[in-house]
Amino acid sequence: MTKKVRVRFAPSPTGGLHIGGLRTALFNYLFAKKHGGDFILRIEDTDQTRFVTGAEEYIEEALIWAGIPYDEGPNKAGDFGPYRQSERKDSYATYITTLIEKGAAYYAFDTPESLNFHRTDHESKGKTFIYNAHNRLKLDNSLSLSKEETASKIATGTPYVVRFKTPENTTITTSDMIRGSVSFKTDTLDDKVLFKSDGMPTYHLANVVDDHLMQISHVIRGEEWLPSLALHTQLYQAFGWEAPKFAHLPLIMKPTGKGKLSKRDGEKGGFPVFPLTWLSSTGYKEAGYFPEAVINFLALLGWNPGTEQELFGLDELVATFELERVQKSGARFDPEKTKWFNQQYLQMSTAAKILPEFKKGVLAAFGATAIENKSDRVLETIIDLVKERATFTHELIELAAYFFVDPTSYDQKALKKQWKENTPEIVAALTEIIKSQTDFSSANLELTIKNYISEKSLSFGAVMPPLRLALVGALSGPHVFDIMEVLGKDRCIERILALGNTAKDL
Ligand code: GLU
């Protein structure tokens, strides 16, 4: 029987979740759902010094907003909890004892001062201090000390850490679902600390123990964790556990393609790097992005379906996603493209979906009176008329302003150009025609006004631009007759008269 797919997103609550983190969560989610598996959220909060209040809540809210909820996690009980490592802290000690007994780990008593001394001493010689087989017998640990000395240090309360005993001069070869075979030479590896003097496990120990206990089948995480794979592989071997399969996702690169995308790039380039606002950094949500658009562009950061298709709903992503199609090389982040995605989702959205936010925006911008005589159906028509030119929902408010308030000024250049000698006569005739209509539908208005134009042998250019200027204040906007139908007879007439009054003084 093949193992059930169980994946986890394991962030440390050290700050707001960057979009790179959200992409990791997404790829885990897609992989889990594609294989009928479980998506788990595990909070890796063993490093108390880096804990940031509110970060865990932020992570959960971001997953909810993105529409990728977890199956098991801090606020959703499962069979493998608790899902916060700080709540599991008592369970790690037995595993460290096991490793020590197996000879795979050892106590180290070196003080921070002595380690610092070695580090700076090496640096001054242009070298890097590595704590491993080549020098560990010269350092202060249970391998260099006798059994009795070690026991007495522990008994007298000398602070210690537990380090992994990296084998000497060995090559560790393992495989990654994205990168293929990966090898590490142990001589370049540190004997990493597994257990700290504060009685807490480090990321490495807690991560491996929990992945094992939670029966994680696949570890999908960012490329920055690839170097840890050497130790993790050895830990699984030392415990005698079957390791999960690993997949390290490519980095998300700056828009220039050089270097990893950072918070500062967002500040410089004026684009969000967080899904939700975090401290002073505006989030994608608050910038007006649809979560569906964010999910869509994140999915394509490092993965491609092998076709030209760019627009994918979440279900479609689940169906199409394959880890084998994730690239090894960094994925360049393109802020302009994120806007394009949002624009596409706005165009695909129904007016009914946009209506609540649109209404709120209109109320805030133009007050209650602007909206009081407009039904939801009319508001939806307005949305449909203007949305073509918008990328974000909030842009609709400005684009639709003339449906709610009469123009207070006119595009002067256009007015001067369009207001000709016979224009007063034309607008007077238009006013009469409009007054006499009982059917104020766009189609009827179009027919009637076009008839008038041909009967009088006028040109469209003599009639339509002044009419549009009167209604919109500028020569932009959707089909004039559609605008007229929404505005209604009275507003159309008043606006035409108002333009006439202004133009008098030209
Ligand atoms: N706690 C690590 C992080 O903050 C988890 C890395 C992993 O998935 O193993 O990303």
Q: How would you describe the overall organization of this protein?
A:
A three-stranded antiparallel β-sheet has the order 3-4-7. It has a two-stranded parallel sheet with strand order 1-2. The chain is elongated and about 110 Å long. The chain is about 45% helix and about 10% strand. It is built from 21 helices and eleven strands. Strand 5 and strand 6 (about 180-185) form a beta hairpin. The mean pLDDT is about 95. The chain has helices at about 20-35, 55-65, 90-100, 110-125, 145-155, 205-215, 230-240, 265-270, 290-300, 315-320, 335-350, 350-365, 370, 375-385, 395-400, 400-405, 410-420, 425-435, 440-455, 460-470, 480-505; strands at about 5-10, 40, 105-110, 160-165, 170-175, 180-185, 195, 220, 245-250, 250-255, 330. It is mainly α. The longest helix has 25 residues, at about 480-505. The chain has five domains: about 5-75 and about 205-255, HUPs (Rossmann fold); about 90-195, Glutamyl-tRNA Synthetase, domain 3; about 265-345, Glutamyl-tRNA Synthetase, domain 2 (Orthogonal Bundle), CATH 1.10.1160; about 350-400; about 410-505, Orthogonal Bundle (Arc Repressor Mutant, subunit A), CATH 1.10.10.350. The structure holds glutamic acid. Glutamic acid binds near residues 11, 44, 207 and 225.
Task: Strand order, main sheet: write it out.
Answer: 3-4-7
Uncertain segments of ≥5 residues (pLDDT<50)?
A: none
The CATH topology assignment of the largest domain is Rossmann fold
Bound ligands, each once: glutamic acid
Strand content: 5-15%
CATH class (first level) name of the largest domain: Alpha Beta
Q: How large is the count of helical segments? A: 21
Number of strands: 11
User: Any guess at the CATH architecture of the largest domain?
Assistant: 3-Layer(aba) Sandwich
**What's the domain count?**
5
Structural class: mainly alpha
Largest sheet: 3 strands, antiparallel
